[in-house]
Amino acid sequence: MLLLPYFKAKPWLTSFLLLVLYDQLLSLFKTPILPRPILIYFIGVLISLIVWLYLNSIYKCLPKKLKFIMATLISLFLFFVISSNSVIYLTFGEYLSVYMVNYAKNDPMYWFNGFHDHFLNVNILGLIACLWLFFWIWMPSVNSKYEPITLYKLFSWVFIPILLFAGLNQLVPFSKENRLNLFTATLSAFADTYYLSSPTTLGPSKNRAIISKLTPTPSSNLNFIVIVTESFGKGMDGLPFYGHKTNAMPFLSQWIEKEKNNFFIFENAYTSSTASEISMMSILSGMAPYKTSKDFNKNPLLWDWLAPLNYDTFFITSQRLGNLKGFIKSEGLDLYVGGDDFDESSVNDAGIDDLISVDYFCTKLKENRDVPFLGVYGNNALHGPFQQTSTKLTTQPSFKNIYLNSLFIIDKTLEKIYSALKESNSLKNTVIIITSDHGEMVTHIRDIPRIYSFYEEYINIPFMVFLPDKLRKKKTHIVSQLAKNLKKNIGNVDILPTLLDLAGTLQNNPYPQFLGNLDGSSLIKHIPSNRMLTVLNTNDFRHWNHEGFALIKENHKFISSDREGSLLYDLSKDPLETKALPLDEHSEKLSIYESFIKKHYHLDRIYNSEFGLKLRSINLNYL
Questions:
Q1: How far is it, in rounded angstroms, from Cα 461 to Cα 491?
Q2: What is the pTM of this model?
Q3: Which pLDDT belongs to residue 1?
């Protein structure tokens, strides 16, 4: 208590020291992913100190009422700095960046959703204490007086911000490669946004090509369901059908066992991106992630291909898809319902309770219909901070692992979909694909966040196809070919061409210009064992702090990123990717990857970036 007067005597110094202390405290909970060179870190701390001295200079010259206002504004700003950076750091191992600011700027609800998901719980008590502490520190005393404003002070109030702005922008190139302190990193993120180009926006549906002439075939009366489960990974436990000991999906496990001849479970399925926006676009378009926004804006999506065959098409998800909603709602889609279209509060990461949204999806499945349907359903329970309970469950999941609890809720959505199909007598005529946008880990194997990781725990995903008896018994060649592809490298980019093939629209198709843009392969056709799959986390409509990609060919994976340089792994001998192969001993393989990279702009741009070249020259070999 004796120290309290000293805290209030110099509020600028107290604030500065508390932020420096909190910066160090966060490092105890998660190892930073960026190095901290002493000189660059010291410059950042010095800039932070100058900012506090500058604020103090203005504060002392204000009358008491304005000091209250300034105390409130400073407290609220620090409230934002600490709350946002705490979540970001514990997720990504680094602080707020210009790319994160730009991402949220294009989707302002992102801030509110993040606050709702992470702080509308017991954590809010810590934030309230933080807000009160800083307000108390800056709150003027009863006898507070203000200093006269001099010409020197006026000059410094104008000159110092210009100097600070220039200094912050000089730090920007270093902030991508090096760790800054919490306060300076936040200032730098906002200072840099004025010239940072925004990602290209995915266009509205009116810009997309219209498919109008397709001839129905006898296969066109099949129903299709695509279930895309957010953050559904093979690396976590809970999936006995992938060899796990724990069973967090009892219904799906029993269903697979009961109709094992109808299920085709792929061993080596890959996402096209660890960023959901890119992955989802590849699923719906059948195009690789290195394609440009021009390609994605032009080419038809899954439902655009099936609409001319008189399919009833609907996309229902518990997620709030933000800016992607306009892109998804194209001419061929009869109904779109996202998380923000329900009159429900979000339960995790802008998503509503999955067992509420799936009920609505099931009402569509049970409708009396004279035409086939295509239904896409998006789960969200597995997205951090993970949905643990549901008002729709009488008995809540009780696993010790939070991921397994969420997985149990996903299992319940599948049970509801199965029951709806049985009730409507549609299961016998419905093809179902269950997959993921990317994987997830609760306990990280290595200090690389999911958003720019290209390791198996995040990119190797569950993928299974259910064939109804009607199709399985009549089309034995389809069954045979699916079985042959089970151990091949496939991806969620293969979903669209597979469904088009099952619907019979790939033969005599009058739209070769659009089919030529498809990078996925039909899973009911022969897939070459030496195909090249691409995983990419940025392109022209999705920017982020760090960039990279992975190329998977046969048993080998080549990774190139601005975090790690170039790495080559033999997955058959080193499935956990613990020891990278020496690149100089595999020049022939490297030349194959480089030849592929040169053909695609975004891959070539990342591979030949200044930072990427520097890392490759060092020849980092991460263990």
A1: 9
A2: 0.89
A3: 45
